[in-house]
Amino acid sequence: MTLRIEPRMSVPRWLSPAATILALVVALAISGGVIAFVGGDPIRSYLHIVGAAFGSVGVISDTLVKATPLLLTGLACTLAFRMRLWNIGAEGQLLLGAWGASAVVLFPLLPAGTPGFILIPAMMLAGALAGAVWGLIPGALRALLGVNEIIVTLMLNYVALLWIQFWVFGAWSEGGFQQSEQFPPEAFLPRLTDFASAVPALGGLTVHLGFLFGVGAAILVWLVLERSRWGYEIRLVGDSPEAARYAGVDIKRLIIVVFAASGALAGLAGMSEVSGVVHRLQDRFSPGYGYTAIIIAYLARYDPLKVIIASILFGALILAGREIQPSGVPAMIQGVILFCLIVADVFVRYRVRLVRTGAAAGAGAPGGSATSEA
Amino acid sequence: MDVTLLLAAGIATGTVLLFAAVGEIFAERSGILNLGVEGMMLMGAVAGFSTAVSTGNAWLGLALAMLAGGLISLIHAVVTIHLRADQVVSGLALTFLGTGLARVLGEGLSNAGETARMPVFSIPLLADIPIVGPVFFHDQSVLVYVGYILVPLAWFWINRTRPGLHLRAVGEAPAAADAQGINVYRTRYVYVFVGGLLAGLAGATITLAVSPGWFSDLTTGGRGWIAVGLVIFAQWSPLRAAFGAYLFGAITRFVLDVQGVQSVFGIENPFLPGRSATFLLGMLPYLLVIVVVVLGSREAARKRVGAPAALGTPYVRGERGV
After folding, report:
1. Does residue B24 contact residue B196 with C-beta atoms inside 8 Å?
2. Could you report the per-residue pLDDT of A161-218, keeping only the tens digit for each?
3. What is the DSSP string of A225-293?
4. Which residues on neighbouring strands pair with residue A350, listed in sequence order?
5. Which residues contact A371 (CB under 8 A, 6 or more apart)?
6. Any residues with CB less than 8 A from the CB of B167 and at least 6 apart, and which?
7. Per-residue pLDDT of chain B (322 residues; tens, 9 = 90+)
8. Per-residue pLDDT at B68
9. Which of A6, A286, A332 to mutate to test the interface with B (most CBs of B within 10 A)?
10. Contact at CB, B83 and A159, closer than 8 angstroms
């Protein structure tokens, strides 16, 4: 018996989503096995996640709050990955974005008492800008000097973490604690429930505006990728750099622009976290959103609109996972999910079957005739 | 601050990077990029440490650490070699999986206290050589000496032996190697596994020798990624990797040790523990990796020596390609 792997000539429409769902189920089963192995109760853990993430309007809001930074960083990864640029630095760009947004309040770049409708956009701008600068470094190194962007973005994640610590342990420390003072209320991103007097339906929805920005950004990224000349070039470079070069695409410029845009999206995620959730800058406020974003982008098959759904799923996992013991379980589940998705992808793109050595190709293979394309 | 002591400690710290980088060189020379080094190291670190805690036997811990690294690397091998998945994504997945699994398995290990360590000894005669002796051969862990032996051995294996020739052929021109009767798939499996063994060894070098203890994913603190960067700087040569690893070991130690100095020439040290400037100092190793990777890429481009030609591309028999 040998393993035979052949590319599929055509992929049935149902196959890709079915394989994705199957991969998620298998991943949960494998993770459940590990949880049981270390003495936990997988069924109860999973039921707990569902209940704690979707059980009531309040917790659904909490899930969306957790999904917000994942959505924005997931889009950052999607944009870069679509061009086969491996921006593994969304975490660092998120941290720098949080720093940039905090700088507006803490330096302060704008005087105290600035009204929210000026302050919030200024923070968004500063956050996106700081993230973009952090993305620009690996982008420029890759485009101009051909330096591997994976290593540079990863190293910059560690540098960004130390950069935040430098500020929250030093100049911005509140009484020696590893956090800044709380922002003034004008710097808080409004929550949906704050608009309940105008739109009663929003009452009780404690999710902040960052989520809506994320959804808006998803639509924007989708429009850019699918409907603009720029997006066409990105997809062309991603699918076939040679063809793109012949078509006259300025690949170097595109790399730099995409990296900056990717960094800006991740930076916005950092702004939305400090302004919408923690309301101050503090050490280790991100449990690795920028790393989970890589899995989200892959799960969504680099489709910005599917990133919305994927980020809500992972938001639930991170939200409810905090109470699950052992504490490493959510991180492990993420790794298992990514592997299962990779394998599922193989089955979507290729036909994998066991063939008896020496037997005529196709003969006796059950799936062979059903999906025969020739 | 005693410079020979600093350098000696730097050599020990660098041994961690050395094992991981040499392992990655083996895998990449066969054409398989494995970005899961950080995850494999953490698996090795937790397997070695928990075994040493529960049995009191550091050697057994070492063996299981290597096995853990090797076994988890096989997932990457199957997915990229047989299933032809993207090596970048699979390697990242391996890091996520290894990190998460190590955290799950390491639950409660952080307050394990004192445990068995790998033996430490001096080499007679060699330790008496001025400067070189105290730095390289005095009171070092047995694993440091293993590193000294591994580097020339790895170089000799890759460049001067028949299996090494096959390894390079598979990484540079798998179709031609296949035509010569070399089993491309088996060769790649073997060297990805060797990479996993050495990454596991690197992890155990942390928890059983250099800085014993379990600090969750901070145990490695990105050193797996530094090792991947070093491979680019080393241009896939074990000798250059050793130089880079010891250099980075010394820098990492320097960053730690400088925090113990009160004042220099009467000026108070701004990098005392807890001072915010210390965090800027902590950036040094990571920034230097970027610098050496930039320099390495420039030099590789100038000398036209680059990554193994087939690195990152799955081999499919009968298909046109490299």
Report:
1. no
2. 999 999 999 889 988 888 999 999 999 999 988 888 888 888 778 899 999 999 999 9
3. HHHSHHHHHHHHHHH-HHHHHHTT--HHHHHHHHHHHHHHHHHHHHHHHIIIIISS-BTT--SSHHHHH
4. A7
5. A8, A12, A351
6. B26, B29, B30, B158, B187, B191
7. 578 888 999 999 999 999 999 999 999 999 999 999 999 999 999 999 999 999 999 999 999 999 999 999 999 999 999 888 989 989 999 999 999 999 989 988 888 877 889 999 999 989 889 888 999 998 999 999 999 999 999 999 999 999 999 999 999 999 999 999 999 999 999 999 999 999 999 999 999 999 899 998 889 989 999 999 999 889 999 999 999 999 999 998 888 888 877 777 777 777 877 778 889 999 999 999 999 999 988 887 787 777 898 998 888 887 654 4
8. 98
9. A332
10. no
Report residue A252 as tokens: 């170097």
- Residue B141 phi/psi, 5-degree rounding, is -70, 150
- Disruptive mutation site among B283, B315, B316 for chain A (greatest number of A CBs within 10 Å): B283
Q: Which chain A residues are Cβ-neighbours of B280 within 8 angstroms?
A: 162, 166
Residue A204, C-beta contacts closer than 8 angstroms, at least 6 positions apart:
A57, A58, A61, A193, A196
Residue A94 in contact with residue A290, Cβ under 8 Å?
yes
What tokens does B127 get?
């330790």
Asked if B308 contacts B27 with a C-beta cutoff of 8 angstroms, the reply is: no
Residue type, B118: M
CA–CA distance, B322 with B317 (Å, rounded to integer): 11
DSSP letter at A79? Answer: H
Place of tokens 């004042």: B263
Question: In degrees rounded to 5, what are phi and psi of residue A4?
Answer: -115, 130
Here the tokens at position A121 are: 């956009």
Closest listed residue to residue B24, CA positions, set B237, B286, B203: B237
Cα A178 off chain centre by = 26
Q: Which two tokens stand for residue A55?
A: 């059980």
Extract the tokens encoding A79.
Answer: 């944009």
Question: Which among B234, B199, B131, B18 is positioned nearest to A151, based on CA atoms?
Answer: B234
Residues in chain A: 374
Name the helix (H) or strand (E) containing A335.
helix A329-349
What residues of chain B, 265 to 294, have a C-beta less than 8 Å from chain A?
274-277, 279-280, 282-283, 286-287, 289-290, 293-294
Decide: A51 and A345 in contact? Cβ < 8 Å.
no
> DSSP string of B198-258?
HHHHHHHHIIIIIS-S-BTBTTTTTHHHHHHHHHHHTTT-HHHHHHHHHHHHHHHHHHHHG
